[in-house]
Design a protein that fits this description.
Layout lengths: L4 H6 L1 H22 L4 H14 L2 H4 L4 H6 L12 H8 L3 H14 L2 E3 L5 E3 L1 H6 L1 H43 L1
Antiparallel strand pairs: 1-2
Length: 169
Amino acid sequence: MPLSYEKLTTHFGHIYPAHVDALCELLIFLREQFFGDLDLMLILAIIGSRARPARHSSAMTYAEFISADRKNDAEQPINMQSIAECSGIPRETVRRKVKKLETLGFIQRTPQGLLKVTDTAMNQLQPATEASLQYLLALGTTSAAIDKASATKPTASLNQARPNNKNNG
């Protein structure tokens, strides 16, 4: 059964602890990977999402994603102003962080001036991608447990209703 807003709110007590624990672990790991600077991670994520839109990666396996040829990335132009508007980070801060990402070798500019994520970033940050997968796995495991609990809940409700039916009959 697909996860829905109703299911999330109905089973919030089960989801919240798993989400918070897994999210804290992920953020701590990402903070370490990005030298204590989560804005750096956010800016890189925005550049990556523009360079490889979801429509191009939706059919990829994880192995294909991490080994994919990035020559065709940077399809959608992105500049400092776009990153600032998308992230809410001031443009001057974005400029400094982009410079740092370039110095680290995590992004580069194309001949057209577009920003794209490098193979260096993909390789060095693979542990961060793995940590993100663990976060998603924790949420998926919780969702599966909720599905299992939901499947047994209607039976319990029916059993509770039966004694009332016998008394009425």
